[in-house]
Amino acid sequence: MISLKKISKVYGSGDVASTVLHEIDLEIAQGEFVAIMGPSGSGKSTLLNILGTLDVPSSGEYIFLDTEVGSLSPDQRALFRRHLLGFIFQGYNLLKKTTSLENVEMPLIYQGVDSKMRRERASEALKEVGLEERLYYDPGQLSGGQQQRVAIARAMVTRPRILIADEPTGNLDTKRGHEIMELIRNFNRQGITVIMVTHEDDIAAYASRTIYLRDGVIEKEVKHVS
After folding, report:
1. Average pLDDT value for residue range 37-47
2. Fewest beta carbons less than 10 Å away: which of 13, 20, 54, 139?
């Protein structure tokens, strides 16, 4: 599904140039659950941002199915994200003073879905994450775990091919973190490809494969037995 070929990322130029990723080669299959780990400064967030088309490589190829993503224009990359990707962030990134339902509807507005269908799909997505009783609560009325569930519903409401998760349990206690990971693993079992950055071994263990980065290169890969 995804093929990275000699992906490098350099910030700055000349004497102040800093190479964050060094010729990364990586293959990710349809339906895989991949975790990316590494110390601060290893390049894991940069790699995730490139995979999510929030950043572009300085050199190399990023091929998604038959599309060379690096050759897309900014508008085309925005469409790629809108229709193929779902995002979950450590900080939830919910709109304040906006209900759970309205937060989850937001990506569907950008897709041009009519209001009746938006409401139905957002309600169903919130039901899938166990928040059917919290449709009209705003983020300030929800716990951290509930806010992350809303964020997951928002990411999944567009039925993306790939779920990009950046430290999805980073702001949660252990119990709530594992509840969130069970939700993510359930979506993966439905065929959604999941790519996740984490710094916690027990969270990475939910993945089928963990990629370890150090100093901008892949140090090793570990496959997990389910």
Report:
1. 94
2. 13
* Tokens (6 digits) for 181: 């990971």
Give the pTM: 0.92
- The separation between the first and the last C-alpha atoms of the chain, rounded to the nearest angstrom, is 22
Burial 49-73 (b: 16+ CB within 10 A, else e): bbbbbbbebbebebebeeeebbebe
Residue 66's identity, in one-letter code, is D
Nearest Cα neighbor of 200 from 226, 174, 222 is 174
DSSP letter for 200, please.
-
Q: Are strands 217-223 and 209-214 parallel, antiparallel or unpaired?
A: antiparallel
Which token pair is 113? Answer: 């879905």
The string of DSSP letters for 90-155 reads TT--PPTTS-HHHHHHHHHHHTT--HHHHHHHHHHHHHHTT-TT-TT--GGGS-HHHHHHHHHHHH
Containing 86, the helix (H) or strand (E) segment is: strand 85-89
Instruction: Look at residue 79 and give its three-state secondary structure.
Output: helix
Q: Give the amino acid at 34.
A: V
Backbone angles phi, psi at 19, to 5 degrees: -90, 115
Q: What's the chain's average pLDDT?
A: 94
* Alpha-carbon span 63 to 216, nearest angstrom: 20
The pLDDT value recorded for residue 226 is 64
